[in-house]
Amino acid sequence: MMDKKEKILAFMREDAYKPLLFGELVTVLDVPKSEIGKFESLLMELEEEGRIFKTQKDRYGVPERMNLICGYLQGNEHGYGFLIPDDENMKDIFIPSGGLNGAMHKDRVIARINKKGIGDKRAEGEIIKIVKRANKTVVGTFESSKYFGFVVPDDPRISGDIFIPKDEINGAKSGQKVVAEIVVWPAKRRNAEGRIVEIIGDKDEPGSDILSIIKAYNLREDFPEEVMREAKSISQTVTEDMIKGRRDLRDLTMVTIDGEDAKDLDDAVSLERLPNGNYRLGVHIADVSYYVKENSPLDIEALKRGTSVYLVDRVIPMLPKELSNGICSLNPKVDRLAFTVMMEIDKSGRVVDHEIFESVINVNERMTYTDVYKILEENDERLIERYKDLCGTFNTMKELALILRKKRMDRGAIDFNFDEAKIILDEKGVPVEVKKYEMTIANNIIEEFMLICNETVAERFFWTNTPFVYRIHEDPDTDKIEAFSEFVHNMGYTLKGINKIHPKALQDVLEKARGTKEETIISTVMLRSLQKARYSHINSGHFGLAAKYYCHFTSPIRRYPDLIIHRIMKEYLKGDLNPAREDLLNSRLPEVAKLCSDRERAAEEAERDTEDLKKVEFMKKHEGEVFEGIISNVTSFGMFVELENTIEGLVRMSSLEDDYYVYNDKTYSLIGERSRKVYRIGDVVNVTLIKADISARKIEFAIVDTGNTENDEKSEEPDWDEDVKPKRKRKKKIMDEAVILHVQGKKKKVKKIEI
After folding, report:
1. Cellular location of this protein (predicted)?
2. Residue 379: which region, alpha, beta or left (left: phi > 0; alpha: psi -120 to 50)?
């Protein structure tokens, strides 16, 4: 089926091809009479996928040869949007509000280019066809009037309220969070029409906020009945029959190292020093594929979900808890089935030999990052005594992790350490503390061990030429790299080899900028030049890791790509991969990789939304107070300031009343026309919290004028994607509550949030 589709596409992409009618295609392609129905179905499928386009005169062609682009619409709260093309080498296309033609955020669409992009200016287009609707339901706040109601979407990127006829309100009341099903799609100058299908609760009711986000992303907390029936039928103990043919590693000392609240423990590690001085590292991964059989209800549901979702107050697992927290979790002192990668690593960090096999294991201890850190870095006597039989192993693990990290850095892996927030909630879901999540040597141990394991597996199976799913990170866009090179050149840095950039060249710039005032701005602009990692059936390497081969093997409890490659690896190792099976996998894996990439993006957005929500809730009680922050982004409409605890808010350009400021997009700065005062990314500023808007999940700050109008060696730095923030290596400036500042003629306390 897939081959036939590709043949049709290849024919339509030929230079000599002109759009043909259905009958003409049948004749030219010599379709047998008995196959005409199937051929028509194939064309319909290709049209629904947006891969071919049927004109108003019923002629078929590929969009790219008709000045048309297929992709996804990314809406904007101001009413316009951007087409994100399927072709990742193409730049986004601006779609003005008048060119949306009823398309909504996330819809799959086809657009016509009306104005070509020139220089930095984007191409402009209009939507001419909606291939697939994304928003069958919308979550928002219901508002009623005398004769009708409407739903204001929670997601500001969905422009236009949803009109609700009086007989479709179904008991909803003003101010309630609801789910509206769309029954009439929007059109030019006409809003969508819908009906209320679920009332989540009052917008201020505890729990309804997170539940609204869960519904908005179509995340399902419960599992279908048939999935639960299968999960409950699985034995929670490992029997002797299960371990036949497996290597018995139950006497091998091994541990899991995870966060305190982790329940799905899918990786254990062991480490021995060999007589020749090398290390024997064992990475033992939960053998989920033993329990989750291909095309079973469990497997079908796991693929739909693609990944577990870690929200601020709960986990929505890919697999039911009977597996994710039960028989598949590598809990201590119980037998578990595993898939083991045993690697011999020399003193330079090179894997000189490895084995991959099914095993049965029994984890000695369930360790936490905190306890391992205290043992290794703080010499905690109580913990050292408690784990005296393991302390030597932990020290060897630290030794090997540092070797592996050095090897990775030496080859040019880009070292971005991002600040992550840890949000503490009370029993009612109210945020009581927001602080930075600290990465320690204990985290680094597991990170390095998983990285080397994933690389080893990917390289092994790349050379077997079997169907596979890789984790790839493609080379950055040349235009973006050239712009970055010009930017750092103006700061006195040289980027080598921009025509065929190597990650080491970027890492070298980062190293030279380390500790300087421009470090943050260079890190930030560099981040903007990189692509996003994704899953693919074709190996094209991982640019950020400077790795030729990489995959996700180590988390099959929470990621579907790991689960599917476990199955493939087992089939290969047992000699069960025949040509027919390979053909089936080759036809299926591209779709699986794309689905998993899409589900990963949705999970990341949902996780970020719940974090943003709780951060705003936390700040609400601090309105009017003053804080120290760092400028994290500068735009034409203002600047974003991030506090020490990762909470970020906007300082609007209009709030800068001491001067008229002009945005300089070359230096990512705001410059006062009269005073020449400059605000750049990385500058430390004091801000007043003006507003914490929970419904919009936004924070607004205003700059506190300390009376200093000089440009005192402002740090020179840029603008990054909202989900990426570089690690800052400045000392904390502790602000005492007793410090008094004069702010616009009033005295205010400068209060630091405890983090």
Report:
1. Cytoplasm
2. left
